[in-house]
Specification:
The protein has 14 helices and 14 strands. The strands form four sheets. The chain has an eight-stranded parallel beta sheet, with helices on both faces. Strands 7-10 form a two-stranded parallel ribbon. The protein is globular. The two termini are 31 Å apart.
């Protein structure tokens, strides 16, 4: 039994009260699902600007009725400090995932990115400190490395931000450091590298490359590579990100606190290689894709050319060991999207979810959800 398996067994035996912000989002919903399956009490917070009710419905379908009763969802916004304070009451661990992702989105609307990612982060950090939350773990990003040319990316060495989004994540880490040094409130940041998996939104102008390409291929549309395809990324399956969050939330080594960690595979795949992998995985059920060629567009502003993580620090201080490699993660992801496309159905949130598990900030239910699960 490895360290993460031992941790899961310990959590199942000793449930805690968790708050997951961005709970209806891609990574957030996977965190909620894993925690509920481990018998934890979970409060989710989401304003549904990007989060999807379908993600919550998928969580409900994946857990038992008894596990589902230990979950409540607060329909609120991290830009509202009072809502953050309300959510943090009675909580032992905060996993702060709520943010406006996407470099292009931040270039289109830097004000919204700052309000959600910086002010929202500060609100959550402040509310958690006020409430005496034992551990605060937050989502940072590989975008923080900016124009630093050296590979692999090492946590102690960063460059200048290349986008408003990257800057918001840098400010998140700086605020966390200030709260540790000025107020003695400890936290851990996780620098995600191109996380992918089921439930990631494949549509819209800000879709990540993997769901966007899978969606295009399944619809018979061209998959567009920005640039010549030589750009490379360290793609990380979502279950590895879940593992990192739970390890960060429970690590007992004081040296591990007030640090940021790479969450990745320590591997690099070009966009051309990624396209070939996805096409090969889809072709057995969709033979016409064997002849599919990508289209090419201009390189996007703010994108880095190459990104690969050194995960040595995460391994040494958190005990992180990614359990999913790229191909296995892609296979599971492709199967999920293909099943969604084949069914032609979008899961709907059952009426029980609406009436019993979702509360608004001014609801009397929301203030007592974790004390009376």
């Amino acid at each position: 039994m490895n360290l993460y398996e031992k941790l899961c067994a310990r959590l199942a035996a000793e449930p805690r009260a968790w708050l997951v912000t961005g709970a209806a989002g891609f990574i957030g919903s996977h965190l909620v699902e894993t925690l509920l399956k481990l018998g934890q009490r979970v409060l989710g917070l989401d304003n549904f600007s990007l989060g999807s009710p379908q993600n919550i419905a998928a969580v409900e379908e994946s857990v038992t009725a008894a596990q589902w009763r230990r979950f409540h969802l607060l329909h609120a916004d991290v830009r509202d400090l009072d809502a953050c304070r309300n959510a943090c009451r009675g909580v032992q661990v905060v996993l702060h995932q709520a943010a406006l992702g996407s470099v292009p989105r931040s270039l289109a609307d830097p004000i919204a990115s700052h309000a959600n990612n910086v002010s929202g982060h500060l609100n959550m950090l402040h509310a958690a400190r006020e409430a005496g939350v034992a551990r605060f773990v937050y989502a940072s990003s590989s975008a923080i490395y900016g124009d630093d040319p050296e590979l692999p990316r090492v946590e102690a060495r960063i460059g200048r931000p290349l986008s408003p989004y990257a800057l918001t994540k840098r400010l998140n880490e700086m605020y966390a450091d200030i709260y540790a040094r000025c107020f003695g409130y400890h936290s851990i940041g996780l620098r995600y590298f191109n996380v992918f998996g089921p439930r990631q939104n494949p549509a819209g102008p800000y879709a990540a490359v993997i769901p966007a390409w899978i969606g295009a291929m399944l619809r018979g549309e061209p998959a567009c590579i920005n640039g010549d395809g030589s750009a490379a990324r360290d793609f990380c399956y979502v279950e590895n990100a879940v593992q990192a969050n739970l390890l960060a939330a429970t690590v007992e080594n004081p040296r591990a606190l007030d640090e940021s960690y790479n969450v990745a595979l320590d591997a690099m795949t070009t966009l051309n290689e990624l396209f070939e992998l996805l096409r090969a995985l889809l072709a057995p059920q969709h033979p016409h894709l064997r002849a599919l060629k990508p289209t090419h567009g201009p390189t996007r502003p703010g994108d880095v050319a190459y990104s690969r993580a050194d995960i040595g620090k995460s391994v040494a201080l958190l005990g992180y060991r990614p359990q999913w490699n790229l191909r296995d993660g892609l296979a599971r992801t492709v199967a999920w999207y293909a099943a969604q496309a084949a069914s032609g159905l979008v899961p709907s949130v059952r009426s029980a979810t609406r009436s019993r598990n979702i509360a608004r900030p001014d609801s009397p239910t929301s203030s007592s959800t974790l004390r009376n699960p």
